[in-house]
Every structure is written in C-alpha cells, then in structure tokens.
Amino acid sequence: MIDSQTIAANLATIREEITRAAQDSERDPTGIALVAVSKTIPAEGIRPAIAAGQRRFGENYVQEAKTKWPFLREEAEGIELHLIGPLQSNKARDAVELFDVIHTLDRTSLAASLSKEIQRSGRHPTLLVQVNTGEEPQKGGVAPGAVDAFLAECRETHGLTVSGLMCIPPAEDPPSAHFGLLAAIARRHALPILSMGMSADYPAAIQMGATHVRVGSAIFGARQPKG
Ligand SMILES: *Cc1c(COP(=O)(O)O)cnc(C)c1O
C-alpha cells in the first residue's frame, strides 16, 4: 500500500489536472466532481485521502462498502458515497441505505427494486443510468439505442428521477467518441450529470463535458488483483 504523503500528493496533482482541463475547455473547475475510487483499498489506505480533504468516494461492491464506510463516515463530516459497480437487485436495499449516488442503473428489474427501496426507506440517492456505449456483451449498461425508452420507463413506470448518465468505454477504443456519445444523449434529455473518465482519460472526459470523474489507481496506486 502506498503511503499517506503520496496519496495526498496524487490528489493534489489530480485536482490541478482537473482545473487545467476545465480551463482548457472554458469550464468552471468547481463544476467537476472528483470521485476517488477506493475499491479494494482498506480503511487505513482511505484515511489519508480523507485527511487531505477528499470527501467523494466510489466503491464497486456493496458488500465491501458495507464493511468500510459506516465507521469511516463517523470519522469525517460530509462524506459522499458513490456506487460505481454493477448492482444486483437483491442488494438494492443495502445500496439505497448506504450510497448517495448510484451510477449503475441499467435494467428494468433494478429500476423496480430501487423504486421499492426508495419508497420504503424515504432515502433518495441520486440515480445515473449506465450506458454501454461500446455495446460490449460482458459489460453492464443500456445500449445507446435503448436509452430513450429506458429513461421513459424509469420515470413513468417506476417513478424514478434519473439525474444523469455514466459510461465505461471499451479498453481498446480511443475514449473520446464514447464520451461524446454519452454527452449527446445527456444533452438530448437535459440530464445535468455526466459520469465519465478514469485515471487514464479523465482530462479528455472533462473536455467532453464530464461533471464527475472516477479516479482510482492514480490516487491509491495499482490495485492488487482480487482473489
Ligand atoms: C475501478 C473503476 C474506476 C477507476 O479506475 P482507475 O483506472 O483505477 O482510475 C472508475 N470507474 C469504474 C466503473 C471502475 O470500476
């Protein structure tokens, strides 16, 4: 695990890069939220980021987040937790309880489960629809051609407010075309949030309109393989 000074320095560098990319495209840097992706990072690796002022964190797994965040949240004010990994319908209750923003709404059954848990709990996490811009079979997300109908269904059948879109471009493609496609769909529906860009490509995503960039390894170092 990397040391706390390195984590603080990485965060400072990324904040500078975000400001530079925003200025390059004549955007207000305060309109771009950095989500620090802390999947697989234990609590003692996350604390230095909190100490350096980072408050928005992204996790991929509900179960892992449940073991880390309830107590980390008690240690600092203003933590905002983002679910950026695939969500199973049977974890919807935990997800609504724990997360402030869910980036991975991508199918009818999940919309139904989230709707039920939101009504039951009275908690209203911000919801983003994941779009599978590369139409990769192994990846979650709604196909670009199905987004219009899915958004209508979320609203009309399930009473959900969707605030934005998220994508993970195919690893082998230049990302900008995917970011541009996501931005165009969001514009068409007047959705304010665009979650796109990771360690390797967040400046490009900002130039294409990202409001949320999800950065993990550039802050916390390379992840250990899961096993
Ligand atoms: C892991 C992950 C990230 C962060 O990736 P890095 O390349 O480490 O910045 C961002 N978004 C999603 C959906 C992820 O799963």
TrEMBL record:
Needed cofactors: pyridoxal 5'-phosphate
Name of the protein this chain belongs to: Pyridoxal phosphate homeostasis protein
Organism: Methylobacterium frigidaeris
GO molecular function: pyridoxal phosphate binding
Keyword set, alphabetical order: Pyridoxal phosphate
Pfam families (alphabetical): Ala_racemase_N
Residue list for modification N6-(pyridoxal phosphate)lysine: K39
Family per record: Belongs to the pyridoxal phosphate-binding protein YggS/PROSC family.
PANTHER family attached to this UniProt entry: PROLINE SYNTHETASE CO-TRANSCRIBED BACTERIAL HOMOLOG PROTEIN, PYRIDOXAL PHOSPHATE HOMEOSTASIS PROTEIN
Top-level division of the source organism's lineage: Bacteria
Function per UniProt: Pyridoxal 5'-phosphate (PLP)-binding protein, which is involved in PLP homeostasis.
InterPro entries on file: Ala_racemase_N, PLP-binding_barrel, PyrdxlP_homeostasis
Alanine racemase N-terminal domain span: 3-223
Entry-linked SUPFAM superfamilies: PLP-binding barrel (SSF51419)
